[in-house]
Amino acid sequence: MFVLDNAVREKKIEKLLEIEKHISRSWHYRSLGGKTQFIPYHFRSSAHYTRIKHTNDVINCIPLFGSELDELELCLCRISGMLHDIGYPPFGHSGERVLNGLMSGHGGFESNAQSVRIACQYLELPSLISSLCIKYNYVIPIHPHFRNITLFKGVYESESFLLTLSKDYNLEKLKTVVNYADEISYTVSDIKDMVIERGDAILLDSYRKTHYLDVCKVITEMIDKSAAEIASTVLTQFFFDSKGLINSNAFQDFTRCAAAISKQFLIEHEYATKEDEYSRQILSCLFESLIQRRQENESVRDIVDLISSLTEQQTLTYY
Question: In degrees to the nearest 10, what's the CA dihedral of 114, 31, 133, 23?
Answer without folding.
Answer: 130
